[in-house]
Design brief:
6 strands, mainly alpha, 2 domains, 194 residues, 52% helix
């Protein structure tokens, strides 16, 4: 069993995550949900005026919820909780990079290192790191990202395959593209468009 646990830990680390016990993940999920803006939503049909519902019905659009369909709010909250739970403080990032926490804050202020705030505390997503430092060419990509993107959107963009980043094996995610050491310019160009 110990080797399976070690393999699981390595899998999570390779994907920019920390392996956590379910209790720790549940606590992180509760904190993430608590930190999200309060949202109340009901059935989609109730959010549209009757004229718009009729127009969409004529067009064949399905606006009613589908039983068993994924809940986007739950998906977002779960992803946010995982990012929160696996993120680093500036002090932790400084130790990992061998620099001072002040220098980490400077990297964040310049946009070279992506971070988000929970209350007044900075959190730095772990996916930006590799074993011996930051991902190659991360700074120009992060600098090109819009400053108003939320952490889940940033993670999803970095981790989703993009058809514009085509390799012999198929489309790569921006994260995989950078990890492979390829030219960062295509990733920077996509980041500017977000």
């Amino acid at each position: 069993m110990a080797s399976t646990h070690a393999a699981d830990d390595r899998y999570f680390e390779l994907h920019g995550l920390k392996s956590k016990a379910p209790e720790a993940l549940n606590q992180a999920l509760q904190e993430a949900i608590g930190a999200m803006r309060e949202t109340l939503y009901g059935p989609s049909v109730e959010e549209l005026p009757a004229e718009e519902q009729a127009l969409l019905a004529v067009a064949g659009a399905q606006i009613a919820e589908q039983p068993g369909a994924p809940d986007p709010l739950l998906d977002y909250a779960t992803c946010f909780a995982a990012l929160l739970d696996t993120s680093l403080t500036p002090a932790e990032a400084a130790l990992r990079l061998g620099i001072t926490p002040t220098r980490v804050r400077q990297l964040i202020a310049s946009g070279a290192l992506y971070a988000f705030r929970i209350d007044r505390n900075l959190r730095i997503p772990l996916f930006q790191f590799q074993e011996n430092g930051l991902l190659p060419n991360l700074a120009p990509v992060n600098t090109a990202l819009a400053g108003d993107l939320d952490p889940v959107s940033v993670w999803r963009w970095y981790s989703a395959p993009d058809p514009e980043l085509d390799a012999a094996t198929g489309p790569l995610s921006p994260l995989s593209w950078l990890k492979s050491g390829r030219d960062p310019e295509p990733v920077i160009a996509i980041a500017r468009q977000l």
